[in-house]
Design brief:
Number of domains: 1
Strand content: 5-15%
Number of helices: 3
Shape: elongated
Helix content: 25-40%
CATH topology: Glutaredoxin
Radius of gyration: 16 Å
Distance between the termini: 34 Å
Number of strands: 2
Strand order of the largest sheet: 1-2
Bound molecules: glutathione
Length: 116
């Protein structure tokens, strides 16, 4: 999630929390964690709490349209960034999506340069 906040140019604060580690049985949910299941990630933006990484990524892309990282929701090309779309799974938010967003932004920048 941090990579996306950086790409968007967002101002953010990271609040580390402890979590339960199901693989080892170690750790425990942090009462200070706003996530309803005490997992990570969770995002609080403008008083809204978001959980689930896919929901957070899509929310952030729409909240910072000026970054030009993804097609607008009404754009017919928007579907390509859906987690289930061809070529976007299984590591949607970790590998496929960052590469696709960078490509989209760079292509938009170069076409803007060419039309000037
Ligand atoms: N589907 C969730 C999964 C979140 C999740 O399971 N996160 C792990 C860390 S990678 C966690 O917080 N585990 C603690 C627990 O299961 O209580 C998402 O994508 O946000």
């Amino acid at each position: 999630m941090i990579w996306l906040l950086e790409e968007l140019g967002a101002t953010y604060e990271i609040r580390p929390v402890s979590i339960f580690r199901p693989m080892t049985g170690e750790g425990q949910g942090d009462p200070a964690n706003p996530h309803p299941d005490k997992r990570v990630p969770a995002l609080v933006h403008d008083g809204r709490l978001l959980a689930e990484s896919v929901a957070i990524v899509l929310y952030l892309l729409d909240a910072f349209p000026q970054a030009g990282l993804a097609p607008a929701p009404a754009d017919r090309r928007r579907g390509i960034i859906s987690p289930g779309s061809r070529g976007m799974s299984p590591n949607w938010s970790q590998s496929c999506l960052p590469a696709w967003l960078a490509n989209w932004r760079d292509r938009r920048r170069s076409s803007a340069t060419m039309t000037r």
